[in-house]
Structure formats: structure tokens, C-alpha cells
Amino acid sequence: MRTRLGWVFALLLAVAPARAQVPVDPLTEVRRIRFHGIDELNQRKLRALLKTKDRGGAYGLRVALGKIPFVPSPAHHPFSPLVLQQDVVRIRQSYAAAGYFLADVRYDVTRDDARNLLDITFRVHEGRPLLVTAVHVFGEDTTATLPVPATERKSWARLVSSIQRQRDKPIAIEDATDGQTRLQGWWRDRGHPLASVRLRPEADTARSRTTLDYRVWPGPFAHFGAVQVEGTRSLAPGTVRRLTPIDSGDTYSAAALERTRLALRQLEIIRVATVDVPALAAADTSDATRGGAASGLGSAPLPVRVQVTEGDGHLIGADLGYVTDGGIAAEGTWEDHDFSGGGRSLKLSTIAQTGWLALADNPDERYRVGLALRQPGFLLRPLSGVLAPFLEYRDDTQDRSTQYGVNASLVRQKSQFQSASLSYEIAVRQIHEYRFGDLASGEIDLLTFLTQVAQGSLDSLGTSIKSSTFTLSGITGTLDHAANPRLGIIVRPAVQLSAPTRWSSTSFWRADVTANAFLPLHRRITLASRFALGRLFPFGKSIPAAGTNPREQFLELHDVIFTAGGTGDVRGWENRLLGPKVPEVLFTTETDTSGKPLYIPHTDSYVPLGGLERMSFSVELQLPLPGMGPNFGAHVFLDGGRVRTEDHRFDLKQGEHGQEQMFYATGAGVDVRTPVGPIKMGFGYKLNPSLTDLVDPAVLLREAAAGQDVDALPRDQSRRWQFYLAIGASY
Fold first, then answer.
1. What is the pLDDT of residues 344-380, one digit of tens each?
2. Among 3.40.640.10, 3.40.50.720, 3.40.1280.10, 3.10.20.310, what is the CATH number of 131-217?
């Protein structure tokens, strides 16, 4: 028996099971929801369809935790019999959309009278799917050939081939209509604004088979006309027009209209932008009047209308966060979205990473203030120009210093996850105190070198480092959700070059790439991974010359050398302390009996040496926390990384004590979603720590100074563990 698929679809949706009534009141809730008989569809997607919500497990514990500030209490979800009936219809619709038109959906309800709670079980008999046996794409007149331009024939053939992949699969309404949309969009992006495609499925329900016929009507060819801008208040219409990538006489393209909407997002003062062609709004593209619509369109160019709605001209914002390695952090911003007209924006930002309450021995303190003047449509329509002077003070494992400079950038941003930028930065860093040693060389006479640093007698090292660098960077990929992704990949490559060399204290190339990928494995289980690879190539003045101290050139590169470890990198190690590191040697000055100054070394923490190469990775399984509801989660991970310098010209001997090998850590933690941002905490465990990972720095320095064999020092196994905690964003 053959019938139209749409009639079958409508008939199935009209039927809903009637159930015996269960006594309920406004306090009745659902304790749990189960599914029985689910094989072909994703249970996570089916649960997402439900408007009936259960309380979840460990309800009493979540109520108790809800009394803690910033931790949400479980929401109350009163049960509604009508909503439950609607859920059944939604499940049946989902099965029908996936090709299972004969799926039978019922439910059982069990009531706990003592607790006023319900248990609901959805029982599904999926039945046999409707298979697609043939897919045809042709014009309204099946005897005529579609007018595909010669230059577009390969593109058209690829599109048709991709749509025909539905053959021999269960019919999916979403895929079938997506094919219709893509066929129509192909013609509308190539000068045919009224192109339409009719989808005619023919079903043989007795044999569970169907065919899909796509009938294409390209319609008349058209060009764009004049562009008119409406709705501006403080913005000049000419500013909006300048960013509109459509010119009179261009071939009509629906994609060009969408590109215009994206381009206008460069103007931060624009809250909403709509772009349309008024002449097409009145065109009737129904089957009966296609000829009339086409003749009414005529051959004249089509004027374009751009309507904008402006938002607030000024914005003030503030954020507060915490990270294990940097303590309490705060950020404040002030923005003017139309600074001096022309769509320019001015942003003042301040950042304070205080180190307060940090758990790291050597917390990263950072204070920064910067201005950013942004000009959209700079040089070319798709580009934005940014000029950003800045001033920064830092006190971390590298040094205690002040840097000031300016950054100029050209930015091309197509979307949130598609952008590229070319920037130039010139800056000067004033070093107040170096925090670097070279105990990894195995020579305790390095104290002579460190003492010279403390005395300031290494004039060639200097306290002022100039930098002049060009950086080409980008981001590409896609994510299903920006804040909490479960599917997608993001890649961030970057290449940096110091030039002109006479304006810079160092000379180098630097290449770096990081990638993050997410894959859902189950309804609430996600596999998250990260990979990072980097290499620094010094040249010119940064290559140690004969008779010079290679440590000095290495110290001057310390802003761009690679490190690893920390909350956002290889957990199990403190921030940047995976791989080569040395005790942070400080000196107190005393005088001997003759009045001559003596420099007494002491230490209580390590500082990173870093390296010219870095590789790190992370594989994390993100899991639900059993019985704790959607605001709680858990994760287990395996992280790894390596930092090394395989360059004989520096001859730093960082591989001593196994510090340049590949290191691994594993661990677990919990995530809590709160109104102030996610709380992430957990423990990492070093699987193959080095000597410096397990020996107290003071012990290492003392025994090395005494000429003892440091490799024979006892290891403190408790140093394998590393706690990490982050609240909100870390800066």
C-alpha cells in the first residue's frame, strides 16, 4: 500500500495513550524517570525532550549542600498529568522524525503515597523503520535540464551526491528537509532569489519503504541594487554602509546578506542588525503563483535594506575569580562603543591577580592596565584595527618586573570560532629581580653566578629587556556550546618573530599550536582532550657566542621560553614547574670579621627553567556525579608533558636528574556550577616524578652546596600529590 508520508506522520501524532488517573496535588513530584525498550535513539536526546522533570538522586544531600552560599538548592518540579501526556507525544514525534513511524510509546506510573512521589517508566516498542530506497533530484519539468552554470557543475554534483547518501537508511525528517534547504540555498546563493525546492516523499508502508523526490525550480536571475540604512541614532549611516559587503550590481546571494549581518557585529554598539530585500518580501513563491512572482520581480536590480538597533553606548563590567596558582583575581572594564564616532570603540581594562590565598609556593601575581582602541573596517571591510597601549607589573616564578608597551593588530573575525590576526608589539620590561638559577647543571659553583646576579655585577645581562615582535595567530573549529562544549574541536596556531632585530634585545622565531576536542560518549559523559606543541628557534644575538655565558642569553629569552604544568595544563604539577627547574635561591647579606660582605643563600621553593621545546596533552573523562543533579559533575584525567632544550649551543645540561623526560599525571576532581561561575577542584598525582619533584628545594640546595650526591637524597612521596582549585575565570 502506497501513501503520502505526511498523512502517516499526522495520523501518528494525533494518537496519545489514555492512562488511569493517579491522585496528585501541588506538592507531588517525580522521584525518577526510566526508559525501557530504547535501542535506536539516543536516550539523552529523548530525556532532553521531556518537560516532566524528576528530583534526581541524593536529594537530601543536595538540599543540605544548597544551604552553602552560592551552591544552588534543588528546584521544585511539580508533576502535571497534562505535561506527561505531551511528553509522550514529543517522544513519538522524535521517533517519527527518525523514520520509526510505527513506534508505540506508553508509560507506567507508580506512586509512593508516604512521600508523595511518583516513579515514571516510559515503555517503547520501536517497530520497523521506513527505509529510503531511492533519492531523485530534478527540475519541475523532468524532461528539461537544470540551468547549472558550467563553472558550478562540480559544486552541484557534490551537493546532489551528498543528498543521495540518505539512500538505504531509515528516513530522517531532519536530514530530508536539510537536503531541501541546501538545494534551495545553493541556487539562492548564485543569483536566484526565488529558487524553491519541493520535497515529495512516497511511502510504501506495507514494505516499510519510501522514495524521496526533490523538485527544483531555480526561478529568475537577479542582481543587488542600492543599499539603504535605517534605524541609526548616534551612528552615521555611512559607517554602517562602509561595513556592508554588498555593492550595487553584485549578483544576488543570500549568503552575502548573512555576511552583512556578521560584518555589522564588528560594531559593538549595534545590538540587532537585519538585512533583507523588500522586493522579495512581497513575492509569493507558492506553486500556483510562481510565474506571477517571477514576472512581478522584473529584471531591475533589487534594493537592499539594512535595519539596525543600537544598544547602550557605554558599559561597565567586573569579574571575580580564583585559581590555585594565582589566588584571588579580579577584572574591571569600562567601554565606550562609539568613541568619537565612526563606530570606533574604546575599552579600558584592569586586571589584578593578587596571589592572595594561593596554594602554590610561588604564586603568580600580576597587575595590568590597558587601553584598546578598535576601528572596524580598517583598510578593508572585513578587517578591524586595534591599538592597545598597556602597563603591567608582575611578581612570579620568572622575575619581578614592570613592562610597558603598545600592541597594534589587524583582526579578521568571521565567527566566534573562526578568526585570524596579525599583530605587532613593542615593549620594554624593567627587571627588578631575576628569579632564575642553574642548579640543573649539577655544578654548585653556580652560586658564584647567582651571587653575581644578586650583586648586580652581570652588566651584560642587564635589567632592561626590549622586545619588538610580529605575531600571526588564529582560531578555527566549531563547538556545539561555547560555555560547556560536548562536541567539536578548536585549534589555535600562532607564529611569532622578533623584528626588527635592532629594536629587540632578543632574536627568535616561536611556533605554537594548541587544540581542544570534545566528544560525547553518553547522555552525560564527555571525552575532552587537549594537545599543545611548541618550539622556539633563537638566532642572531640570542645565540651564545664563543667565550660568552650561555645562561645569560637563555635568561633574556625567559619571556618566550616554554614551560608546562598547572591547573589549566598538566595537573599534578604546580604552575610551570613540570620539567627543568631549580631552587629559587635568595641571598641575605652578612659581614665577616673584616667587614667584607658575605652572601648567604637560602630557598623555600622552585622556579622553572623552561625550555626551547614543549609538548603536553590531556585526556579527560567528564562524568555526572551520581545522585547529585545537573549542577554537579566529576572528571578523571591523564595528563602528560615534556619541556626540554636540545640545543648544544646553550649547553645548559637541563636533562640532569631526569628533568627533560616525558612526565605523566593522573587524578580526579569535581565541578560545581554556581551563580558566580564554575568551581573546579581536584587532586593530581605524579606518576613518574623527577628528583626535583620529590626533594625539598632547601634540602637540595644545602646538600649540593656541601658537595653531596643529590641523586642519593631521600624522596618525599607526599610531594607526588597536587591540589588544584579554580572559581570562575582565571586571569
1. 999 999 999 999 988 877 788 999 999 999 999 898 8
2. 3.10.20.310
CA 153 distance to own-chain centroid: 37
Domain covering 224-310 in this structure, CATH number = 3.10.20.310
Which of the four pLDDT bands, split at 50, 70 and 90, describes residue 300?
confident
Instruction: Give tens-digit pLDDT for 528-542.
Output: 999 999 999 999 988
In tens, the pLDDT along 545-587 reads: 777 777 777 878 888 999 999 888 999 999 889 988 878 777 6
Distance in angstroms (rounded) separating the CA atoms of residues 667 and 180: 48
> In the chain, what are the domain boundaries?
2-125, 131-217, 224-310, 318-727
Q: List CB contacts of 440: < 8 A, sequence separation 6 or more.
A: 580, 581, 582, 609, 652, 653, 654, 655, 656, 657, 659
Q: CATH number of 318-727: 2.170.120.30, 2.40.160.50, 1.20.58.220, 2.40.110.10?
A: 2.40.160.50
Percent of the chain whose predicted confidence (pLDDT) is above 90 = 45
Residue with cell 510504501: 204
State how far the Cα of 713 lies from the Cα of 22, in Å rounded to an integer: 73
The beta-carbon contacts of 251-254 under 8 Å, at least 24 apart in sequence, are: 251/190, 251/191, 251/223, 251/224, 252/188, 252/191, 252/192, 252/193, 252/221, 252/222, 252/223, 252/224, 252/277, 252/302, 253/188, 253/189, 253/190, 253/191, 254/185, 254/188, 254/189, 254/193
pLDDT in tens, 192-227: 999 999 998 888 777 889 999 999 999 999 999 999
Q: Which residues pair with 131 in a beta bridge?
A: 170, 209
Instruction: Report DSSP state, residue 287.
Output: G
> Helix, strand, coil: what percent of the chain each, to 5?
20, 40, 35
d(CA 693, CA 580): 10
Picking from 452, 453, 436, the residue whose alpha carbon sits closest to that of residue 609 is 436
* Run of H or E residues at 532: strand 525-538
pTM for this model (two decimals): 0.71
Q: Classify 239 as helix, strand or coil.
A: helix
Q: Cell for 71?
A: 551552591
Looking at this protein, which amino acid is placed at residue 383?
A: L
Per residue in 160-176, pLDDT (tens digit) is: 999 999 998 888 888 89
What b-and-e string marks burial along 139-165, b requiring 16 or more CB atoms within 10 Å of the CB?
eeeeeeeeebeeeeeeebeebbeebbe
Q: Write the single-letter amino acid at 204.
A: D
Task: Give, in order, the Cα–Cα distances in Å from 576 to each of 499, 563, 565, 606, 675.
Answer: 27, 5, 5, 10, 30
Is 119 within 8 Å of 35 (Cβ atoms)?
Answer: no
Please, what sign has the CA dihedral across residues 471, 476, 482, 487?
Answer: negative
Q: What is the CATH number of domain 2-125?
A: 3.10.20.310
Of 653-657, 670-674, 684-688, give the lowest mean pLDDT range.
Answer: 653-657
Residue 282 CB: number of other CB atoms within 10 A?
9
pLDDT the model gives residue 3: 46
Separation between Cα atoms, residue 44 and residue 33, nearest integer Å: 12
Distance CA 13, CA 8 (A): 9
Residue 676, pLDDT above cutoff 70: no
